[in-house]
Amino acid sequence: MGRRNKNRQRPQQNRDGRPEAKRSRDDAGWGAGYSEIIKENKLFEHYYKELKIVPEGEFEEFMGAMREPLPATIRITGYKSHAKEILHTLKEKYFKDVQDLEVDGQKIEAPQPLSWYPDELAWHTNLSRKILRKSPLLEKFHQFLVSETESGNISRQEAVSMIPPLLLKIEPQHKILDMCAAPGSKTAQLIEMLHSDMDMPFPEGFVIANDVDNKRCYLLVHQAKRLNSPCIMVVNHDASSIPRLHFNQDGNKEVLFYDRILCDVPCSGDGTMRKNIDVWKKWTTSNSLQLHGLQIRIAVRGVEQLAVGGRMVYSTCSLNPIEDEAVIAALLEKSEGALELADASADLPGLKYMPGITSWKVMTKEGQWYSDWSEVPQSRHTQIRPTMFPPTDPEKLANMKLERCMRILPHHQNTGGFFVAVLVKKAPMPWNRRFPKLRNKDVSSSSEATPAEELQMGESPAVVLPADGSSADAPVEAVEGETPAEGNPSVPDTPAPSEVKKDNVCGPPPPKKMKLFGFKEDPFVFLTENDPIFVPIQAFYDLSPDFPKLNVLTRTHEGKKRHLYMVSKELRNVLLNNSERMKVINTGVKVWSRNTDGEQFGCAFRLAQEGIYTLCPYIRARIINISVEDVKVLLTQENPFLSKLGDDAHNQAKKLEMGSIVLRYLPDPKDLNAPQCPIDLCGWRGKTSIRAFVPRNERLHYLRMVGVEVFRDKQGKRNDCSTEAQKGSTEDAEGLSQETDLLEQEGEETEQNGSESNTNGTEPVSSTCDGPASSLSQ
């Protein structure tokens, strides 16, 4: 054969490897081709009509709602003390401006609160991005959403996606596992609830957020980092075999059981047709049949790791009972009373839902129906499993109380479709009670099926092989509340010589233990109490004696430490006792950053805004109390002279040496026009000037709180600033347009340097259930 001409252009190929058709100019951009998709699927309509999940007489309304675009919903983060201020700004300014507005002769419908979400912290609106850009007032609202979303004060999240965390009933002391967490909207809710008490910098509980996709883990990190919590850890594992973790309690190594587990499993996503329009043409019953087994395996692994008395919420964005009630029924049947469906009907007043169904059939993609497992021919046994059918025993079915499941239909409250069930664990799982601490010689075969696989086959679980790949003499839950037996090879209390890790170091697991893919992470190195790095920090900031030095970590073994992070005491315990078991992507909140110029002033580390609310309870020096007017000056001017501050703040600043400082605003209950929540800002006291080290979006957030509105025109070339309480200075406002803040420069440098900031330039990936993190705000 002759050589091919290397310079010859090849036709572009799509993901399937086929030549890609040329696209017209009209097709360019996001959502191209969606207008051509016909929102119709006869098999879908036939299937759900036959199953009768929609009340009689409402099916046409149900299908009509499925064809309508999904309203955008926003949620104000609840754990920050600034939530009430943001809500006040939204209601009194932006929503009022929108209320009487007309665009192209059409009156704009003002956003409305979700009736079932507590404290009016979630709102929905029919405003599209196209409409948002057609009016200057709406453009301001759009910029407000973008800025507040990026600073973590507002989240763009689908309404039904907010339900599972609310049903978990989180308390600050709870240990929480989010099994399939990316992109992280629900994880953010869990963190907020954990920090419901802002006076507690380190809640006793924590959130471990897991996802099987390494790239999506970094999207999860981005969502979590906006909340600046020391109680969140992102890990990368297959949820169906997520390893058991251990922790040290009074010198003994105990198995970690979670108080709350969110099990939002992968699903066919037919409840998301209103936003994922391509589901219309791709939907078939085979999607549910293929996912059913994985959903059971994940749910089984979840209940195995749930503490007795704990709650697990199982949820999908699918309406199909094969993925919903069938999974719940399989769990309940084989739990033999260890699990119970909780009645959550009173937990969210105002939420409209349909109770779970107790009778359903299975249909193949060819349209063949089966009402019972006995009807399924042998040739179909690999596709259709016994657990896909409802229990045949009427008494057993009644005792399950499947009607306690909740199915949200789109036409009832203008939402997406969703399914959720709350499970409470009453006792250890029966296969763990039945087979305690077996030895290898007692196990007849190492190829025994796992509990999840046996559930699918319709058999009672026999000898259980732990899903984390450890040996069979340690059942997954045989040690409910007990220390694992000595000599148990599944618990590496004494690592092999090649696996011995350094003290206070939690690094990635050895490659021979796990097949790890994705980015290589730097280790997590905890500092000791007598580390010399603390001496100048302690003296400079006058840290209180109860400052938890052991909770401080860095991401490097050698050389100068660039950043210092903090985690809670409980997460430190988990990290140090499980370095061989899990792949940690990110944990901790940054509290100090190295500043080489600072060494000459007594401390080489300046405060980081991300961790200011974590650190402040322990800092007793370098604090300047400021007024509302001082906040305006500091955030609108690049390097204001000390004389620009009010007399009180000026006198405090003159007494301090050069270096990093805390700028603290405390609310005045008598001044109702001023913010009614405390504000802490990182700053730098220079020779004759003072500066706030605050990222741009947080800067805009605090300015809005003190009555300064910052608006960028469509070209992005200028800022229009105005104050509600008092006229601001034009010169001050111009400082914002420069955006050359040293903090931002350092932030960009950190982002580019890879794993110390735990961002690797990964492109965000959308989720079937949660949707884009901020599609309205883009």
TrEMBL record:
Residues 62-426 form the SAM-dependent MTase RsmB/NOP-type domain. Gene3D superfamilies: Vaccinia Virus protein VP39. One of its GO terms (biological process) is tRNA methylation. It comes from the Eukaryota. Keywords: Methyltransferase, Nucleus, RNA-binding, S-adenosyl-L-methionine, Transferase, tRNA processing, tRNA-binding. Belongs to the class I-like SAM-binding methyltransferase superfamily. RsmB/NOP family. This is tRNA (cytosine(34)-C(5))-methyltransferase. It comes from Cirrhinus molitorella (mud carp). The lineage of its organism: Eukaryota, Metazoa, Chordata, Craniata, Vertebrata.
